[in-house]
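Hey, I'm writing a tutorial for new members on how sequence and structure tokens pair up, and I'd like a real worked example in the thread rather than a made-up one. If someone can provide the structure for the chain below, I'll link this post from the tutorial.
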Amino acid sequence: MKEVNIFYFLSIIIFFSCIKNEKKEQQQPIADTIERAGLTLKGDSMNIVKDIILDPYAKGYPYDKLIDSISFVKLETTDNNLIGCINHLFFTNDKIVVVDMEVSKTITVYDRKGKFLYTISHRGAGPNEYRTLDYATLTLDQSNIVVVDMGANRLKYFSLDNATAKLTGSFLSKSVELPYIFTNVEYITDQIVAGYYSGGNIVPGKTDKQLFLITDLNKNIKYSGYKSFYNKNFTFTTRFPLRRFGSQLFFNPSFSDTIFNVTDKGLKTHYILNIKGNKKININETTENRTFSNELNQNNYFNSYFIELKDVAVFHYMSNTGRLNWGLYLKSENKTYDCSSEYKDPLVGFFNIPWFYYESNTLVMPIAANRLISHKDHIIKHSNKQLAKNLLDNLTEDDNPVLLFYHMKTKIK
């Protein structure tokens, strides 16, 4: 299915470090129904919902005022682990796992200091390989990386334990049938998953194809929702509206302003975003790509990019102001601080879409080595001298992306 993914309309696509670049459903919880951004959203009681107020027209705070400090990890580069894009990035107790779905189509593993350890399987038609690398996530115990292989219609579990792989001769732990078509899937329990597919899945008892499902691996659906309006004339979606941060799983229906917690019983409203200048986005059977694109270009809207951390949350959104817009929500103050486009430290300036969760109050941005080198003089002059020296020493344009760790402030003076 060919999709127009809103991600590709972002001017900051360089973030990815690309070198190239009316039947009641069974077990459905009692729900409130609200109309937001032209979509009907269902969730349980909203008495603990956080209202996130974002203003793209506000003066805002410079990047440096919202980011406490920066550290980095250089991913070792060898002939056997060249990375084109980083689409998924996972951190276990002792490993960094990098998934490149677009260029090298590989899964590579490093220690926490960036030393290359090994590659997990590879693309192919063999029983221990994956035909397509459509999505990847970790099992809840972090022992396996699970590949959504739509080419084989399977969920393939690959062990992160190299010793076991050497003993058995394969990283593949097991392979199960993909219960439904999912391009975005996360585990709720070992046997229950939440999945999303913009084209929708056929669900018994529903007349419309459903975008979002909670199901066990035997295809027993526990919850479903959100009609798919995908057709040959309308193919817009947001990228990965289903996202895990630590132990929490969230879902944001594309182009809506509501973010839900996901449980095995359904959805629980967690955040509602109020973006100044936001106009109601209507999506229905008559919506077409051209008119929808024009509507987005004239609007301020949430595009599903956010990260939930321990004491803060970071929200990226699109606006017609011509600048990158993001806000830092401080949980202790129940207040959101809008970001301006200003910064002093050029390393802070690489901060863009909040994509990869690390731990506590830290998120990670992969930055292409050639981008860092192109800003070398500016970094040396304006960034922390020791940090800049350690970062740039022996770095070449052909090296793998560097991981910049942004430690967010939890208190704004």
